[in-house]
Specification:
The chain has 122 residues and is mainly beta. Helices cover 0% and strands 50% of the residues. The chain contains no helices and eleven strands.
C-alpha cells in the first residue's frame, strides 16, 4: 500500500499560479527522490522537475525554468510544485513519482500518483 496522491490542479488563466501537492503514504518519503511529470493529450509523458532526497538539489526542464519551483517537506511526507506565470502549453495531467536514490530517467521511478489535471485557459 505504497501510494502517492497529487492534488492542487484546476483551471487557471494564463499568467496565473497553482501549487500542486504530492503526499506519500505507506513509506517514508525522505529515502526517495521525487519527480514531477506531465502528459498532455496525444503527447508523451515528460519530466518537469525533480528534487533530491534532502531537497539539496533540484532540476527543471528548460520550458519551466524560472517559473516552477519544486520543494519538499519530509516531515509531512509531501512534495510541492509551485507553478507561476502559467502558459497554455502547461496544460496537462501532472503526476508525481518516487524512486529510491537520486533523480533519474522517467523509467526508473517506482511509485506513481494518479495525476491531477492542470488547465491553463482564458
Amino acid at each position: 500500500q505504497l501510494q502517492l496522491v497529487e492534488s492542487g490542479g484546476g483551471l487557471v488563466q494564463p499568467g496565473g499560479s497553482l501549487r500542486l501537492s504530492c503526499v506519500a503514504s505507506g513509506f517514508t518519503l525522505d529515502a526517495y527522490a521525487i519527480g514531477w511529470f506531465r502528459q498532455a493529450p496525444g503527447k508523451e509523458r515528460e519530466g518537469v522537475s525533480c528534487i533530491s532526497r534532502t531537497g539539496g538539489a533540484t532540476y527543471y526542464t528548460t520550458s519551466v525554468q524560472g517559473r516552477f519551483t519544486i520543494s519538499r517537506d519530509n516531515a509531512k511526507n509531501t512534495v510541492y510544485l509551485q507553478m507561476n506565470s502559467l502558459k497554455s502549453e502547461d496544460t496537462a495531467l501532472y503526476y508525481c513519482a518516487a524512486r529510491r536514490g537520486i533523480c533519474s530517467n522517467i523509467r526508473n521511478y517506482d511509485y506513481w500518483g494518479q495525476g491531477t489535471q492542470v488547465t491553463v485557459s482564458s
